[in-house]
Write a structure and sequence with these properties.
Layout (H helix, E strand, L loop, with lengths): L1 H27 L16 E3 L6 E3 L3 H12 L3 H15 L8 E3 L5 E3 L3 H5 L6 H20 L3 E7 L2 H4 L17 H12 L3 E3 H8 L13 H15 L12 E7 L2 H6 L7 E6 L6 E3 L9 E5 L5 E5 L3 H10 L4 E5 L6 H7 L3 E7 L26 E2 L4 E7 L2 E7 L11 E5 L3 E4 L1 E5 L2 E9 L7 E5 L1
Parallel strand pairs: 5-6, 5-13, 11-12, 11-13
Antiparallel strand pairs: 1-2, 3-4, 7-8, 9-10, 10-12, 14-21, 15-16, 16-20, 17-18, 17-21, 19-20
């Protein structure tokens, strides 16, 4: 009898603990998830776009479970507690996106492929990336602009000494960054490898609990870019006075300890930056930001998350600037800002994206007939028109191209253009962006 009573009490306590997250959601509401991809609250009834048809959501319970998993009450507190135990006791990370290193250092999991050398781009992918940058450079020169490609090094490429022992650093002779830089040098494309700059500095300029550089690192990166491009600039790095405050909360720490993010030191430069934002800006992570400065030239800059802290140091050096987080270079952006300078900044871990996202820049017509042309048998393509331009996008048949085959398009039997090569879903593709073509225009695909 006593055992039955004891088991009953255990069962009641167990069920009560399980009900806490549900009860908490009723009292305090759903917890804010630290994941931007967390499931949304599902609807039991699905309504068609024209609202003419209503159906029962067959996946409602599954979706509701996914929503609860991401938003249950006290979720952040539970994640924080669990992460603390796994990190301090077992020296491992509870979050798939975070690598817990030594001495309190954290690294982004997506950089492991570069660090261990397990995700090296193929010869064809590298060709696609380099050729794309070459054609962007050609477009810029034809339109009176300077083009520069900037690489922000992975944190563990620079400061890998605190990586866990069970991740062995690559011993292959080159990584994607080194491979790409060698090819860009051979092609005469302006590039800025910030790895060399930061390595030569000899001190840590990245955050311990974040995947990016600190403000001092951003100032150094900006100075390096300005000197390479010949742009007049305000040199804040090692010259401007600053204050140090322990109030920075790293993105990796926020994933691990969402309810109690441990702050670390950040540098804040004194005085106002010499630029103004145009329109409403929530943060420097916004997809598109326009700024107005006073030092000359107009800048079009495509950047990733590294470019967010970099933005103020760049913006004050240009009369007009447009900063975009788009993966695709757009002619409408470049023309809207009347750019003199086009800069693409990519983190080292994102270099493969260069072979996956062709720009939407009008191709320059090639004078005369290209040498060594052969028709690309089995090439398939389609066309689409928008805002006065025609886009020709297609795929190549496997076995009809080599690692360094350039793709050419002949339009109307006489005009030649080189298409952007890119890789998607395991297939080799191409894309051309030209002034709008009349319906029925003859289009042929060649390789050389």
């Amino acid at each position: 009898m006593k055992n039955e009573k004891r088991y009953t009490i255990y069962l009641i306590v167990f069920l009560a603990i399980l009900l806490v997250p549900f009860a908490g959601m009723l009292i305090t509401g759903p917890s804010k998830s630290e994941s931007a991809s967390a499931a949304k609250l599902p609807s039991l009834i699905l309504v068609s776009e024209d609202e003419s048809k209503k159906t029962l959501n067959k996946d409602y319970l599954k979706q509701l479970g996914e929503y609860f998993e991401g938003h249950c009450a006290f979720r952040q507190e539970m994640v924080t507690g669990y992460s603390f135990v796994t990190a301090k006791v077992f020296q491992t990370s509870s979050q798939k996106s975070v690598v817990c290193g030594r001495n309190g250092w954290m690294y982004y999991t997506d950089t492991l492929g570069d660090y261990t050398g397990t995700e090296i781009m193929s010869e064809r992918e590298m060709f696609d990336a380099v050729r794309t940058l070459k054609l962007i450079d050609r477009y810029c020169k034809a339109n009176g602009m300077k083009f520069y490609f900037v690489i922000a090094a992975n944190k563990n490429s620079l400061y890998g000494e605190n990586m866990p022992y069970y991740y062995a650093k690559s011993t292959i002779p080159y990584c994607n960054r080194e491979y790409l830089c060698a090819e860009l040098f051979a092609e005469g494309i302006n590039y800025i490898d910030l790895y060399d700059t930061f390595k030569a500095e000899g001190r840590v300029l990245y955050h311990k609990t974040d995947s990016h550089w600190n403000n001092e690192g951003a100032a150094l990166a900006a100075r390096t870019i300005h000197e390479a491009t010949g742009q007049t600039y305000v040199d804040r790095y090692n010259k401007a006075p600053y204050k140090v405050r322990k109030d920075f909360k790293g993105d990796l720490a926020a994933m691990m300890y969402p309810a109690a993010v441990p702050p670390e030191e950040e540098i804040y430069y004194d005085g106002e930056f010499g630029f103004d934002y145009e329109g409403k800006v929530e943060s420097n992570f916004d997809n598109k930001i326009r700024t107005v400065g006073a030092l000359g030239n107009n800048l079009m800059m495509y950047r990733d998350s590294f470019g967010s802290s970099l933005l103020p140091f760049m913006a004050e050096s240009y009369t007009n600037a447009l900063f975009s987080r788009s993966l695709t270079v757009q002619v409408k952006d470049v023309e809207s800002i009347k750019a003199n300078v086009l800069i693409i900044e990519k983190a080292e871990r994102f270099l493969p994206q260069l072979a996956e996202n062709p720009p939407k820049l009008p191709a320059t017509e090639i004078e005369g007939n290209p040498v060594g042309m052969k028709a690309m048998e089995g090439a398939d393509f389609k066309t689409s028109s928008f805002n006065g331009y025609t886009t020709i996008t297609g795929t190549l048949k496997e076995g009809t191209y080599g690692d360094d085959t350039k793709i050419y398009i002949r339009i109307g039997g006489e005009r030649w253009y080189e298409a952007y090569p890119f890789h998607k879903d395991g297939r080799e593709c191409f894309q051309l962006y030209v002034n709008e073509l009349p319906e029925g225009t003859k289009i042929e695909v060649f390789g050389a």
